[in-house]
Amino acid sequence: MAKASSTGVRPTIRMVAELAGVSTATVSYVLSGRRGDGGPGVSDPTAEKVKAAAERLGYRPNQAARAIRTGRTNTVILSLTMLSDPWSLSVIEAVQRAAAPYGITPMILGDADWVKVLGTHNADAVFVDAVREEQRDALRRLAEHGTTLVVFDEELEAEQFDVIRSIAGPGCRMAVEHLLHGHRKIACLTPTTSAGTSGGSRYRAYSEALADAGVPEREDYVGLFDGTTAGAYAAAMRLLSMADRPTAIYATTDFAAVSAVNAAQRLGLVVGKDVDIIGVGNTVEGERMTPSLSTVGPVDFFDKLARLLLQRASGQDAVPNQRLAGGDTGSPLVLDFPWHLFVRESAPHRSAATRLY
User: Fold this and answer.
1) What is the mean pLDDT of the chain?
2) Is residue 192 a contact partner of residue 227, using CB atoms and an 8 Å limit?
3) Which of 60, 113, 274, 298 makes an SS bond possible with 337, Cβ 3.0 to 4.6 Å?
């Protein structure tokens, strides 16, 4: 909101225009964050003059008035199940980086009831990273009432909203098979909700890959945890403290794999030598950590997700040179990501001749 100047007069967009020597339309264009979207050209020197004039006068755009006038809030909501997960942090980082040049502010909704929140809060676009079966009708109702949604889900089809799809099963199988090239004592670190014969595809990939390789699945090598970082760390400590400890750990998320690396180092084990650890997700944190984390996941997932979300928030022509391949970007789409294996320091390549029993 605009604030009062030192003279006691609340600065206006017209005052900024007069001080900068430009039109009010130019001021509005520059301060809206829309420069560079292919619209009317505004040179960098002119933009700097406008910003300097606004700063000198203490002018701040009235966001509430702008929302009424344009129908836009200049915000996007990110509903993320677990904020401490490197996957969630990678989403936040990518969206913040993509949104900053366009004056759009990401609002983070962590581990909350997004159905309730979206019933009372508006945003130009919303990303939801998990949809339970009982929430699907609510998702469709929100879309029918005009909420712009981008949803991460392996099963939903693009109806009135976009779907980001990344099928985990085959990629997770690659991770376990990578470990099988050098190990037979392979543990699985996974949340309690995903284990068992009726569990998720990430655990089934482990169980089926062992069976196909003729390696018995050991119940004591399944490290179950409650879905938290602390729980994953405790489960990894138990696995790695066993007398007959595993020589490799397949973690069904990167955050669990990071916890396993921390546990191994706490116990004095050299990751990548005494124990190999691989995760799932291909997160930025996993790539940057020491040792770098071997993992499976899609390529450029986070940047492309951010690109689509910003397209939807800003209008499909508002983000230059960022169109997504695969048809009319104005229609709901399914953005599919194939998975790849990323071999890094925590689980290097091994051959059958160098198996650790």
Assistant:
1) 84
2) yes
3) 298
